[in-house]
């Protein structure tokens, strides 16, 4: 992988990188499309990273279909599909550990201690191997984008992080590998998440933070059986409390259905009135 990227650079080719955990859907393919538009060569990795799964999370059950993924990657125009084995990425116990110190104690990070440490560890390894000019991440995982941007800025990785807008089903549900775990009834209920987010965006300026969150909670609880994990309104990408209703804002939520935990968000700029 390193040799390939070095050779591309010698030929003055730009390299775009799309890191994934596989089970590809249109969200992943939108990242590929963006890379193809901006870079000469596109590398996609498929690696289900054990370090970012907690003890009671779904590492073993995480959906995998390498044959289908390979076909989709080829059809979408990926130049190199990089599929390392866990023993190659982590050949022995790591002699260093990485800790994400900011942007991790809210949203998903609050209930998944250590998750983002696993994310920044594997991405540091992958960035060093792929040596890309740009790396593409879906905005659906907005906290991950913020944490990765912090990693790149702090350690001065020579790669530009490019967030790509969330891809949605026609009814607004964000595309996700975990959507396959929704029951038919839950799938019908799930679009309320995005509707609540859009209502929150509309309401925030005149209702304020707590009233907006309450309104969103009521919307979801009246229309879905899932249990709300969190609804948060924060500055973005700092992920700190919103003191003044101005600047870049994220409204984010997570809802636990029977076998699927869904996350979604909207990011927008509030102007002083």
UniProtKB/TrEMBL annotation:
SUPFAM superfamilies: Nucleotidylyl transferase. One of its GO terms (molecular function) is ATP binding. It comes from the Bacteria. Its main location: cytoplasm. It catalyses: (R)-pantoate + beta-alanine + ATP = (R)-pantothenate + AMP + diphosphate + H(+). GO terms for biological process: pantothenate biosynthetic process. GO terms for cellular component: cytosol. It is an enzyme of class 6 (ligase). ATP binds at residues 21-28, 138-141, 167, 175-178. Its EC number is 6.3.2.1. (R)-pantoate binds at residues 52, 144. The active site is at residue 28. Beta-alanine binds at residue 52. Pathway: Cofactor biosynthesis; (R)-pantothenate biosynthesis; (R)-pantothenate from (R)-pantoate and beta-alanine: step 1/1. PANTHER family: CYTIDYLATE KINASE/PANTOATE-BETA-ALANINE LIGASE, PANTOATE--BETA-ALANINE LIGASE. Catalyzes the condensation of pantoate with beta-alanine in an ATP-dependent reaction via a pantoyl-adenylate intermediate. The reaction proceeds by a bi uni uni bi ping pong mechanism. Belongs to the pantothenate synthetase family. Homodimer. This is Pantothenate synthetase. It comes from Jeotgalibacillus campisalis.
